[in-house]
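User: I'm writing a short methods note and want a consistent example. For MFS transporter, I'll paste the sequence; you return only the structure tokens, no commentary, since I'll be parsing the reply automatically.
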Amino acid sequence: MTTAPVAPADQGRALWLSTFAFTVCFAVWTIFAIIGIQIQKDLGLTDTQFGLLVGTPILVGSLIRLILGVWADQYGGRVVFTLTMLSAAAMTVLLTFAYDYPTFLLAALGVGLSGGSFSVGVAYVAKWFPKEKQGTALGIFGAGNVGAAVTKFAAPSVMVAYGWQSVALIWAAALAVTAVLFFLLTRDDPDLERRRAAGARPESLAAMLAPMANVQVWRFSLYYFFVFGGFVALALWLPRYLIGVYGLDIKTAGMIGAVYSIPASVFRAYGGHLSDRYGARRVMYWSLLVGVACAFILSYPPAHYVIQGIRGPVAFSARLGIVGFMVVAFVLGFFMSLGKAAVYKHIPIYYPDRVGAVGGMVGLVGGLGGFLLPIAFGLLNDLTGIWQSCFWLLFLVVASALLWMHLAIRRMEQAAAEAGLPARALPELPEMQSLHGPAQQGALAASGAIRDWRPEDADFWAANGRRIARRNLWISVPCLLLSFAVWMVWSVVVAKLPAIGFAFSNEQLFWLAALPGLSGATLRVFYSFMPAMFGGRLWTTLTTWSLALPALGMGFAVQEPSTPYWIFLALALLCGLGGGNFASSMANISFFFPKAEKGNALAINAGLGNLGVSVVQFVVPLVITTGVFGWLGGAPQAALAGGAQASLWLQNAGFVFVPFIVASAIAAWFGMDDIATMKASFADQSVIFRRLHNWIMCWLYTGTFGSFIGFSAAFPLLTKILFPEVNALSYAFLGPLVGALARAAAGRLTDRVGGGRISLWVFVAMSLGTLGILYAIGMKGSTSAFPAFFGSFLFLFAASGVGNASTFQMIPAIMRKEVARLNPGRPAAELVKQADKESAAIIGFTSAVAAYGAFFIPKSFGSSIAATGGAELALYGFLGFYVSCIAMTWWFYTRHGGLLHDVERGGRKAPVPAPSPAE
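Assistant:
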């Protein structure tokens, strides 16, 4: 007899309530990481005794996992989970009655029951999901490790205010309430209900423990010893380490310890997703490789060196500061979390009926790492007297695990090659060979990029294509918005540098405003080809992460007025990393949409991405006036504003974007897709350099986007120089805002009317806007001069925004006709793919060339002012350029006989051949 299909509501409730319950359990399990520090002071314990105290709950929670996992398989995870939580809550209350070291150790044994809940939850959750989703589900459940961070955040404040006994009582009450809610709101797992319906008795303990005779269970557990045991050990040890090494108080040490604990917990769900999608072995390799690198960096103690140089001794010191430590700890925790999920991805695949027992044994060994390592850390401290000795041990553990795994995999592959077995028949890891059969083949392999992608097929687009394309678009938008924000942040910062003591000339300030445009435009030349070479998802993730470098660098540099000018030049160039991202982002998104929606999609991606310019010019003037990040953000700078003294936190101009950069990079890796047919080498894409229309569109797009980004960079400083009585930063964001919104709104209009026709009138409007600016400058001294100046600039920004959308809409339409004309004998489906590839490359390349406007426009204004004392010379040059754009658009595209005339005037349409069903 079988049970009814699993209801999605029951499935989701089981997963999320189990995750919440495990989070509370983990918070209780690691409680000694905080209260143990006060207990150590009260009892005068050594570091070795402290390590034993914080490790005792970990020992109990680890050892009991095996039997709790077996009971979960036998009697159901719902009941066992509830009883475990209630027992642990009672034991945590009894902790408050301890009075000396032996009684604290005895009480810690009872607290450790909470850690055994992991194997119960694994068995319970796994039975609600099919094997292709178990990696993600168990990863989400395992993210309950974040309970360690909850304790580090909340417990120090409670302990300081009310004492450590209050921490124990509050944590126990939370665990008891969670146990009751879990039992009332969940139901028994489908496997238990099936057995009850069939009248089957639970299997015996001996049958449940039978897999323990398989050597692969024990070998496999060793991986978990590092990724989980190492995590728990550091979660317990870091507050003590931070207090000893950096002299922090308990609250600050707890907060920074959470910087390690959070990524090592939350991203476990992400590791499960990656294991489902890209293969568990690949995730294991990255986890161990990065673990080796991070442990090596953290294991290096502060040192003072004296080198005998040519002119005498040269002395220098090497020390990892608190910020560097936090960054490395974050990275280590992140990759540990991926490794934990990758390990548990294997268990339900190879032991579907023994998830609790096998998961309990693997968790037991991993938990033993959390018990033994803190004791070893304390012992090493006492023996060596060096704080970093704990990371020496971690380095040895992870390096040994990586070497052993790699050599075992190589031996398995070599043996299979000699026997003539195909690689796809092998398991991910060699210890699973004896269990690997047809049912497991391919279950742990990577799913890889999307291979069937037919956006021009209406049925495919309606069924799956639109949903996937829109998800990629809406993840791409915030990544691109942040890229523009970082690219243009100097346009705001340079105007404030003189006020806080930087003695830079106007020419030097214009150079700082212009250099991000130069480097960003240059990087776009290369970035435009990268999505097709490496995949849009990977490239978007990497380039978004890269934004943190200039954002952090700027935040540190502006805090010290003695920072040399060349460092600011280097940081300005690094801000160009944000500018380069536009080319790859647009090239990537262009692949996802059909021709009928491509213009609108590109307009949304670019238009909302362009909002980053407006965001930076609106947000930065606000955040630099207050200490947003407290002590962590650094001290304020004294500034002169209108003759009065004020405080500025100019470093916030960079720091404020870092949390959003991290979140967007994670979202890109987690939610975006690669398209297999998008792959192309640089040689394949370089055909665009032989296309005449590539170069024409470079010229026209420079007229629209080059103007938008160049005026965005120059406007705040230009206004400050021409109208010093006006607070330029109060108005600067409006121009980019108008331009970005105009671009986003114009997408559908360009798809309907035609990009060529709209572009022609855009350049006429931009010429009129330039004349308006020249007229306003000539009125200088009049009360209406600035309103006319500002209004003309807004008109110019709006016209450039519409032109940004219309020129990009032209490119796919042009290439559909050109590729069909140049390749008359090729099949229709191949023509579509080739046209799309060339369109994407041209979109990226034209954006690269146009981005030089971010350099040339501010530099032109600076040179014009330096040479003539005014900006008129530069503006006359821009006017001449717009006139040339009018002529080229009309001649090549919109006149009778122009390439787009028949397409946009309702005549013969550009060929859009539909792929055959087989393709």
